[in-house]
Amino acid sequence: MANLASTYRNQGRRYKAEELDVQVIDKRKRVLGAEHPDTLTSMPNLAFTLKSQRRNEEAILLMRKCFQLRKQILGPQHPYTETSLKAPNKLQMENRNSSRTLNASLSCRLHTCKSPRHSVNKS
Question: Could you say which of 32, 104, 111, 123 has the lowest number of CB atoms within 10 Å?
Fold first, then answer.
C-alpha cells in the first residue's frame, strides 16, 4: 500500500495518495504498534504527500513529530533520526523559497517589480 501511495503521489493523484498513506499509518499502528520503526517510516511518506498538496505547515509538523519519536525510540545517533532532523528544516527552507518566488512573481504582475529584465519600455 505504501508503494501504491508513492506511485499515486508521483502521478499527481495526491488526495488518493494521502488516503492510502493514512491507511498505512493506521494499519501499521494497529499491527506493529505506534513506536515500531516501520510505523515511523510511514509518517514522512504522509508528510511528503501533504507537501505535494501545498500543506507545508502540516507536513513540517508531522516531520517534527516523527523526529521526536525516532529520537526517543531509535536514539539520537540513529541514521533515521538524523535524516528526520534534516527533513523539517529542508521543508521549511523550500517553503520559504517558494514564498519568495511567489511574492516576486506577484510583484512583477502588479508592475511594482524593480528588476530591469521586467521593466516595461514606456517610449
Answer: 123
